């Protein structure tokens, strides 16, 4: 098990290396960072072999599953890069309502398989995102305001440690490492080969509401949204997106889109859950108003993906905040005034107040989540657009409680993503399980 898998590893300079490197990144903007060797694992033996190789050659290890880290956190100079995208086995126990799935499993693929057997898991909102990176960082998925960030439904993990040991971790086995695996995100210090998941019954109804407003109403809409944040039914995920993609907003004019899913037991309940959204004080000025429509999960995935076109170059940044609308509006106006063309967008999510969470590394969230995504095609526009998310979030940082790791940009803007207490504990657990620093850590931290 000491040697790297035949035909499935590429040293820097080998034929096939560059295409293997580029294929590890979903974003078309592939950073100029070059691992020494890329290992395309298909099973746990490959992972163990790569770790032994790294140890014998004193190399650090980085890992990717779906490659959807906006910053391509796994691309590190000189690393042994473990590409886990082929480790995507899935078994579902419908009676026990559990599943065991490999980190390379796409969240939307898992959601579709569960949907077909009447089950549900809070998978992420986009196609292509794999459960590997998604579950380690928290996991803001369908119905997560009710069932919690998806990492709360990870009941155990199969991992390979820095020493190449294959272990199962859960609340009773290696509890510290299990604690870390739910929130450490791109700083986790073991390789996950499988997640053991708790499943839920498929909600009977997935309802949706959809409004689009002219950009001139930004003050009224965001002030209203902030005011109702504690009152939005937890089954409703109120996402407000500023985008230039709404045709009847006027040529090249941004609009504010409020597209919200709600999972419920009956259509009447779903409609009731949306009532508050129809009470927006400027609802009569909406460009489009659809207070309720049934919508399948597959259609939601298609709709969401229109904001994340696959052939674009991206940067992202974000913040959690409890600030008032009055405090946030100057920064929001700066964002709206400089909003780049579609698919760039500004996301406002009414998330909290949150219930008590499990004891896990994930520990930082606030009432409102703000995120910026810049997306463009021409590499010559890198300078024009790439800093838009970072610079705007940096200018609002005094209003932030911290950031989500989902949309992290830590290499460019170090920020807090767990409580100070949990960061200290993460450092202690890392020192225990990875004393030699075999695994690359976050690209930046406070
Ligand atoms: C288009 C798009 C939509 C998104 N939508 C959502 C969303 O709805 N909700 C949400 O919460 N997030 C969302 N995200 C963020 C996404 O969840 C994170 O970027 C996540 O890390 C992606 O997981 P991945 O496996 O695809 O990425 P990767 O880039 O492969 O992984 C990210 C990091 O996780 C670690 N990692 C990955 N696999 C393993 C493993 N097997 N063992 C140990 N460490 C590992 C590595 O450090 C790696 O650098 C979205 C991202 C994109 C690009």
From TrEMBL:
<feature type="domain" description="FAD-binding PCMH-type">
    <location>
        <begin position="31"/>
        <end position="202"/>
    </location>
</feature>
<dbReference type="Pfam" id="PF01565">
    <property type="entry name" value="FAD_binding_4"/>
</dbReference>
<keyword id="KW-0285">Flavoprotein</keyword>
<protein>
    <submittedName>
        <fullName>Oxidoreductase</fullName>
    </submittedName>
</protein>
<dbReference type="InterPro" id="IPR016166">
    <property type="entry name" value="FAD-bd_PCMH"/>
</dbReference>
<dbReference type="InterPro" id="IPR016169">
    <property type="entry name" value="FAD-bd_PCMH_sub2"/>
</dbReference>
<keyword id="KW-0560">Oxidoreductase</keyword>
<dbReference type="GO" id="GO:0016491">
    <property type="term" value="F:oxidoreductase activity"/>
</dbReference>
<dbReference type="InterPro" id="IPR050416">
    <property type="entry name" value="FAD-linked_Oxidoreductase"/>
</dbReference>
<dbReference type="GO" id="GO:0071949">
    <property type="term" value="F:FAD binding"/>
</dbReference>
<dbReference type="InterPro" id="IPR006094">
    <property type="entry name" value="Oxid_FAD_bind_N"/>
</dbReference>
<dbReference type="InterPro" id="IPR016167">
    <property type="entry name" value="FAD-bd_PCMH_sub1"/>
</dbReference>
<keyword id="KW-0274">FAD</keyword>
<comment type="similarity">
    <text>Belongs to the oxygen-dependent FAD-linked oxidoreductase family.</text>
</comment>
<dbReference type="InterPro" id="IPR006093">
    <property type="entry name" value="Oxy_OxRdtase_FAD_BS"/>
</dbReference>
<dbReference type="InterPro" id="IPR036318">
    <property type="entry name" value="FAD-bd_PCMH-like_sf"/>
</dbReference>
């Amino acid at each position: 098990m000491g040697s790297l898998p035949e035909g499935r590893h590429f040293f820097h300079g080998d034929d096939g290396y560059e295409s293997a490197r580029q294929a590890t990144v979903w974003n078309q903007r592939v950073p100029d960072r070059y691992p020494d060797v890329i290992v395309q694992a298909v099973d746990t033996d490959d992972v163990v072999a790569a770790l032994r190789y790294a140890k014998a050659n004193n190399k650090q290890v980085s890992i990717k599953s779906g490659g959807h880290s906006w910053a391509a956190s796994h691309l590190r100079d000189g690393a042994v890069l473990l590409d886990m995208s082929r480790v995507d086995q899935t078994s579902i126990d419908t009676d026990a309502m559990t599943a065991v799935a490999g980190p390379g499993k796409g969240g939307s693929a898992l959601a579709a398989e569960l949907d077909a057997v009447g089950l549900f898991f809070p998978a992420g909102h986009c196609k292509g995102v794999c459960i590997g990176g998604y579950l380690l960082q928290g996991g803001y998925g369908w119905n997560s305001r009710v069932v919690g960030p998806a990492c709360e439904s990870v009941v155990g993990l199969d991992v390979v440690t820095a020493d190449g040991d294959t272990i199962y971790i859960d609340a009773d086995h290696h509890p510290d490492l299990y604690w870390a695996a739910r929130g450490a995100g791109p700083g986790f210090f073991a390789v996950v080969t499988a997640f053991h998941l708790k499943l839920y019954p498929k909600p009977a109804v997935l309802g949706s509401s959809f409004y689009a407003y002219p950009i001139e109403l930004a003050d009224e809409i965001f002030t209203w949204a902030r005011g109702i944040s504690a009152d939005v039914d937890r089954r409703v995920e109120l996402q407000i997106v500023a985008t230039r993609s709404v045709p009847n907003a006027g040529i090249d004019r941004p609009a504010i889109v409020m597209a919200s899913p709600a999972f419920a037991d009956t259509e009447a309940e779903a409609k009731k859950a949306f009532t508050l959204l129809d009470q927006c004080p400027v609802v009569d000025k909406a460009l489009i108003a659809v207070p309720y429509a049934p919508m399948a999960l597959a259609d939601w995935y298609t709709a969401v993906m229109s904001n994340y076109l696959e052939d674009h170059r991206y940067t992202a940044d974000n913040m959690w905040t409890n600030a008032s609308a009055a405090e946030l509006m100057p920064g929001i106006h700066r964002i709206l005034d400089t909003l780049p063309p579609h698919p760039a967008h500004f996301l406002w999510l009414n998330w909290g107040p949150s219930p008590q969470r499990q004891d896990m590394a994930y520990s930082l969230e606030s009432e409102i989540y703000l995120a910026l995504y810049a997306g463009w095609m021409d590499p010559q526009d890198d300078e024009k657009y790439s800093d838009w998310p970072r610079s705007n979030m940096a200018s609002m940082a005094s209003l932030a409680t911290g950031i989500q790791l989902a949309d992290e940009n830590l290499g460019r803007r170090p920020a807090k993503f767990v409580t100070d207490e949990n960061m200290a504990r993460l450092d202690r657990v890392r020192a225990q399980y990875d004393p030699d620093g075999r695994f690359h850590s976050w690209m930046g931290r406070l």
